[in-house]
């Protein structure tokens, strides 16, 4: 809850989102989009690096690609369920198929989105996963 003190309003700290994607351009575009939407976003190049971030920081949501070298999205999701069971995870992939979708949902992913993802859909999905419907960006472009 925001508190007013004179002319300034104290706002809660922005939700921290870890973006995991081996495609540097896509990862940076996601981080930029999320930052503009009011989140604190940081990136990891694969599941192994993501686990290191998760072990040392506080995160409110993980947005991960499905197919990555070393440790992909589904093995990362399994590890998150083991070590951080309540942490929401959204899978974003260009290679969506029924089998990986079903496995992701069974493992507890909150959503499974196909690339390219429209900015407003991404932000709305994240806010819903965080329990904050908030304001949706006016932009309808794709990432």
Describe the structure.
The chain is α/β, with parallel strands linked by helices. It has one domain: Rossmann fold, CATH 3.40.50.2300. It is 38% helix and 21% strand. It has five helices and seven strands; from the N terminus they run E-E-E-H-E-H-E-H-E-H-E-H. The chain has helices at residues 24-36, 47-56, 73-83, 98-107, 119-129; strands at residues 3-5, 8-10, 16-20, 40-44, 61-65, 89-93, 111-114. The strands form two sheets. A five-stranded parallel beta sheet has the order 4-3-5-6-7, sandwiched between helices. The chain has a two-stranded antiparallel sheet with strand order 1-2. Helix 3 (73-83) links the parallel strand 5 (61-65) and strand 6 (89-93). Helix 2 packs parallel to helix 3. It is globular, with a radius of gyration of 15 Å. Mean pLDDT is 87; it is low at 1-5 and 135-142.
Structural class: alpha/beta
Q: Going across the major beta sheet, what is the strand order?
A: 4-3-5-6-7
User: How widely separated are the two ends?
Assistant: 32 Å
Radius of gyration: 15 Å
Q: What is the number of strand segments?
A: 7
Quickly give the CATH architecture. Answer: 3-Layer(aba) Sandwich
Q: Percent helix among the residues?
A: 25-40%
Helix and strand succession?
EEEHEHEHEHEH
From the 3D structure, determine the CATH topology: Rossmann fold
For the record, what CATH class applies? Alpha Beta
Comma- or semicolon-separated keywords:
143 residues; 5-stranded parallel sheet; 38% helix; globular; disordered N terminus
């Amino acid at each position: 809850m925001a508190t007013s003190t004179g002319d300034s309003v104290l706002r809660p700290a922005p939700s921290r989102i870890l973006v995991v994607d081996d495609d540097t351009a896509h990862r940076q575009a996601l981080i930029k989009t999320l930052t503009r939407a009011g989140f604190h976003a940081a990136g990891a190049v694969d599941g192994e690096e993501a686990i290191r971030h998760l072990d040392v920081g506080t995160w409110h949501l993980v947005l991960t690609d499905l197919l990555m070298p070393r440790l992909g999205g589904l093995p990362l999701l399994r590890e998150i369920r083991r070590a951080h069971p309540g942490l929401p995870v959204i899978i974003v992939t260009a290679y969506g198929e029924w089998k990986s979708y079903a496995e992701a949902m069974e493992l507890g992913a909150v959503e499974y989105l196909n690339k390219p993802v429209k900015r407003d859909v991404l932000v709305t999905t994240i806010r819903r996963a965080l329990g904050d419907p908030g304001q949706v960006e006016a932009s309808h472009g794709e990432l």
